[in-house]
């Protein structure tokens, strides 16, 4: 079981099962949503995700056609990246995990949009878009 929460602790969740591959997304929308050089996400099957608390604290924002991002309305923590194209799973913002998931990022996406002040130096594969 992997547990996670938002910054203020109002939203709490747990994941049974394994997480999908982890990526660092450098698109401008992820950078702005996270207030950082990139957002780090892993796929989670909806059937493996259980919201323990805070349903009334989760708000959403349609950042582009077919994409819904969720946040805690109290503290602003980025939670999920949900696409209409993948109804059985969503991308979870790994910064909200409360413990080590046991997996590490395996690639970077949207590197053509990366912040000009950030250099990627980790040697992971880099992709201009989704691989």
CATH topology: Metal Binding Protein, Guanine Nucleotide Exchange Factor, Chain A
The CATH architecture would be: Beta Complex
Approximate shape = globular
What is the strand content?
35-45%
| Percent of residues in helices | under 10%
Radius of gyration: 14 Å
- Write the element-wise H/E pattern from the N-terminal end onward: EEEHEEEEEEE
DSSP summary, beta strand count: 10
Number of DSSP helical runs: 1
The helix-and-strand class reads: mainly beta
Mean pLDDT: 96
- How many separate domains? 1
> Tell me, what is the CATH class?
Mainly Beta
Unreliable spans: none
For the biggest sheet, the summary is: 7 strands, mixed
Structure description:
Helix content is 5%, strand content 40%. The protein has 131 residues and is mostly beta strands. It has one domain (2-113): Metal Binding Protein, Guanine Nucleotide Exchange Factor, Chain A (Beta Complex), CATH 2.170.150.70. The strands form two sheets. A seven-stranded mixed beta sheet has the order 6-7-8-9-4-3-10. β7 (67-72) and β8 (78-83) form a beta hairpin.
Please summarize what this structure is:
The protein is built from one helix and ten strands; from the N terminus they run βββαβββββββ. The protein is mainly beta. The protein has a single domain (2-113), classed as Metal Binding Protein, Guanine Nucleotide Exchange Factor, Chain A, CATH 2.170.150.
């Amino acid at each position: 079981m992997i547990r996670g929460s938002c910054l203020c602790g109002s939203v709490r969740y747990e994941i049974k099962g394994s997480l999908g591959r982890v990526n660092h997304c450098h698109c401008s929308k992820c950078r702005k949503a996270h207030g950082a050089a990139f957002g780090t996400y892993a796929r989670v099957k909806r059937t493996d995700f259980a919201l323990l608390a805070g349903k009334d604290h989760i708000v959403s924002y349609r950042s582009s056609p077919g994409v819904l991002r969720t946040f805690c309305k109290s503290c602003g923590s980025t939670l999920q990246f949900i696409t209409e194209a993948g109804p059985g799973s969503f991308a979870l913002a790994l910064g909200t995990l409360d413990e080590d998931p046991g997996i590490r990022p395996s690639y970077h996406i949207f590197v053509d949009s990366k912040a000009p002040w950030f250099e990627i130096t980790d040697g992971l594969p880099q992709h201009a878009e989704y691989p």
